[in-house]
Amino acid sequence: MSILPILHYPDERLHTKAKPVTAVDDSIRKLVADMAETMYAAPGIGLAATQVDMHLRVIVMDISETHDQLLTLINPVIIKAEGKAEREEGCLSVPGIYEPVTRAARIMVKYLNIEGKEVTQEAEGLIGVCIQHEMDHLEGKVFVEYLSRLKQGRIKLKMKKRARETM
Ligand code: NI
């Protein structure tokens, strides 16, 4: 397993639309293992393949406090969404920025798990938000794009300044 570099907003590559996985094979299992290691090391609770510059519809997630409940979503599709809820979000691609975003309160999501088996799952609360946030990444969307243009501009400046400082 290896830790992969995470792209940081406003890197253009974060706006790439991910392609569906055609088979859950060894290369996908390797990608999932590397993504999980990268997410746990960060540390974070969710990571989309887009964020490690791999443009395939793969997400890893673990919202448990014990960090032993890895959830892998391959080719996820939201088949039902209800209600609205606001929650503060953060993102490994936008370190240090936390802003409230309104999303569906409850979703029904269909995906392939790491065994390639189709799973349909209902999700609400933190996990529901996390799934929607990570699925946005696969569409090339970063959560700060829900914010006002003014706020986005400020965040961009902050990120660029930080990138210069750490170089
Ligand atoms: Ni994110």
How does this structure look, described?
With 167 residues, this protein is α+β, with helices and mostly antiparallel strands. It has a single domain, classed as Peptide Deformylase (Alpha-Beta Complex). The chain has helices at 26-41, 125-138, 149-166, and strands at residues 46-48, 58-61, 71-82, 85-89, 99-103, 106-112, 118-124. The strands form 2 sheets. The chain has a 5-stranded antiparallel β-sheet with strand order 1-2-3-6-7. A two-stranded antiparallel sheet has the order 4-5. The longest helix is centred in the C-terminal third of the chain and has 18 residues, at 149-166. It is globular. The mean pLDDT is 97. Bound molecules: nickel (II) ion (NI). Nickel (II) ion binds next to helix 2.
Bound small molecules, by name, code or SMILES, are: nickel (II) ion
Rounded to an integer, what's the Rg over CA atoms? 15 Å
Structural class: alpha+beta
- The total tally of domains equals 1
* N-to-C CA distance: 26 Å
CATH T-level topology: Peptide Deformylase
Q: What's the count of strands? A: 7
Shape: globular
Query: Strand share of the residues?
Result: 25-35%
The number of helical runs is: 3
CATH architecture tag: Alpha-Beta Complex
Question: What name goes with the CATH superfamily?
Answer: Peptide deformylase
The average pLDDT is: 97
Largest sheet: 5 strands, antiparallel
Spatial strand sequence of the major β-sheet: 1-2-3-6-7
